[in-house]
Design goal:
By secondary structure, this protein is mainly α. It has three domains: about 150 residues, Four Helix Bundle (Hemerythrin (Met), subunit A); about 130 residues, no CATH class; about 160 residues, no CATH class. Helices cover about 65% and strands about 0% of the residues. The protein contains 22 helices and no strands. Helix 11 crosses helix 12, helix 15 packs parallel to helix 17 and helix 16 crosses helix 17. It starts with 13 loop residues before the first helix and ends in a 9-residue tail after the last helix.
Length: about 450
């Protein structure tokens, strides 16, 4: 029966996978000396490739120094002494080899020398390693060296957090590029175990740590890192959270709670895995109108849209934008405009009507479809606090600028007796409309400058 090692599929470099097949082939055919020689050569090649990746991908100066020195020795030496120098330097200056792996390599090195050189017994027969010895070293090298990615050379969490902090200004306004960078440089090179470890560490940085300025400064970009990991590996990260809930708590700090609510809005499946006390803590938190996006509590987006209420007239645009993204992602984009109209419909005063239109409705009129406009017009027509507001006609005129191209050609506005607007043949009304539109524009401009710096974006 041929030797089959499941873990061989996890060998990090494709080139090394090809060499490993040659090792297995030699073993299967009883060529144990050849297998030992090839195993040692494959390990040396694997270590060189990892140094190269550390140098070129991760800008690791130490790896580059070792490569330069070894390449110089290779050119100058007439023997293979550079090989063991490479192993010693890697052991002393990187974390690619631990003590156990280094000791194993010493034995494989001796075995390789016995196998490659004419080491003879008393009967002048070449000494050969036993099948048991050969397969033991093959398995050990596979598990301890060949399947491990180069990023194990240094603490992956420290490496990532330092790198991300240094690049946060570059990617702050281009999260898509940031996600591509993380996947290319880190995630696709990491095992499931590493992903879970890194996720746990970044959860702590983002949602728990508050005692050092570095965590405050990097909280946003660290949250985006967590989101990028969930985008790629949500299933087994959620499984890991569910099995280790004690690690996934949240500080009472407002910024930490705001950030975790945003992440859970995008990934409600994470909320399900948290322990009950943490869920209760998040459920009770409603600062800064964060309730706008807390649909994950009910796990029902339509119910959330229908039942949400807020005394705030101008809801934070950035939270509304998140809700819009969520509605689209859930295949129900119409729920977002329904949410806006519901908020506007609850206007209980003229100032409510003014502020809810100028601060919320007017910003998203381009998203409304024909049915949305009909519902909006009906809402205005049926709420006296809206239609009786003195400057409402200018706002109705603004609505119609967006609505007319989308409404049916035979749509009868005259049946809405309280929905007043400027008609084409009303010259005085058109002049008044111009003045009111200028006023609305001025109000909207002021609202656009409202300070939302308390929100973690």
């Amino acid at each position: 029966m041929k030797l089959y090692l499941v873990n061989a599929e996890n060998i990090y470099f494709q080139q090394i996978k090809n060499y490993f097949r040659e090792i297995i082939s030699s073993y299967d055919n009883g060529n144990y000396r050849s297998a030992a020689v090839m195993l040692y050569s494959t390990i040396i090649c694997d270590l060189l490739l990892k140094l190269k990746e550390l140098s070129e991908v991760y800008s690791d100066n130490k790896a580059e120094e070792i490569l330069n020195e070894i390449n110089k020795q290779r050119k100058e030496a007439n023997n293979s002494s550079w090989e063991w120098n490479l192993i010693k330097k890697i052991r002393s200056q990187t974390e690619l080899l631990n003590d156990e792996s280094y000791t194993m390599l010493e034995h494989i090195y001796d075995l390789r020398n016995f196998s490659a050189h004419p080491a003879l017994n008393e009967d002048y027969e070449l000494i050969s390693p036993t099948p048991e010895m050969t397969v033991a070293y093959i398995k050990k090298a596979l598990d301890d060296i060949l399947t491990k990615p180069s990023v194990f050379a240094q603490n992956i969490v420290d490496r990532m957090s330092n790198d991300i902090a240094a690049k946060k200004e570059i990617y702050y306004n281009d999260i898509e590029a940031f996600n591509i960078y993380l996947n290319k440089v880190y995630f696709q090179r990491m095992s499931e175990k590493m992903i879970n470890q890194v996720f746990k560490a970044f959860w702590k940085f983002t949602f728990i740590k508050i005692d050092e300025e570095i965590y405050t400064k990097n909280r946003y970009i660290n949250r985006k890192t967590l989101e990028a990991m969930l985008d790629e590996h949500c299933d087994y990260i959620c499984k890991y959270i569910g099995e280790n809930t004690s690690y996934f708590t949240v500080s009472q700090d407002i910024k930490c709670l705001l950030h975790v609510c945003i992440l859970l809005a995008y990934f409600p499946q994470v909320y399900v895995q948290l322990e009950l006390s943490t869920k209760h803590q998040i459920d009770c938190f409603n600062e800064k109108d964060i309730g706008i996006i807390k649909w994950f509590v009910a796990d029902n987006l339509e119910q959330h849209v229908s039942t949400f209420t807020s005394d705030t007239n101008k809801l934070p645009k950035k939270l509304l934008d998140i809700l819009n993204i969520i509605c689209k992602a859930q295949g129900q984009p119409e729920l977002f405009t329904k949410f806006l109209i519901n908020h506007y419909a609850k206007s209980d005063s003229y100032s409510d009507a003014r502020d809810r239109f100028d601060g919320v409705i007017s910003t998203y009129l381009d998203l409304f479809n024909s049915n949305d406009f009909i519902e909006l017009i009906d809402t205005i027509n049926s709420n006296r606090q809206i239609y009786d507001y003195g400057w409402q006609r200018a706002r109705n005129d603004m609505i119609l600028q967006y609505a007319i191209p989308k409404l049916p050609a035979n749509f009868d506005l005259d049946r809405y007796e309280h929905f007043e607007y400027t008609k084409q043949d009303d010259a005085v009304g058109q002049e008044e409309q111009k003045e009111q539109e200028e006023l609305v524009f001025e109000i909207n401009s002021e609202n656009d400058n409202d300070d939302e710096d308390e929100l973690p974006f």
